[in-house]
Amino acid sequence: MLQTITKEDARFCASVVKEIALAQGIVRDPAAIGRLTATVARLYNRGMRDRAELLKAALESATSEQGTPLRA
Question: For every one of its 72 residues, what pLDDT tens digit does the chain have, with 9 covering 90 and above?
Fold first, then answer.
């Protein structure tokens, strides 16, 4: 069953996406942002709530899915 997320959950995930996007220089790449957002949401839904852990796992997951870093 799907669980509804709160505004705070959404803001938390969005801040993680923004931080990674800024660090990787992909702020203006909608496709990369979409992939990153899906990755962060998937990890968050699996129970990853620690910010540092989520940042690291999202970056590693997104990088491994693409085979290369997010930044072109």
Answer: 567 889 999 999 999 999 999 999 999 999 999 999 999 999 999 999 999 999 999 988 877 765 555 554
For residue 40, which of 66, 14, 68 has the smallest C-alpha distance? 14
Rounded to an integer, what distance in angstroms lies between the CA atom of residue 31 and that of residue 9?
A: 22
As a whole number of angstroms, the distance between CA 10 and CA 19 comes to: 14
* R_g over Cα of the chain: 12
Residue type, 34: G
Give the pair of three-digit tokens for residue 40. 């962060």
* Whole-angstrom distance, CA of residue 6 vs CA of residue 31: 25
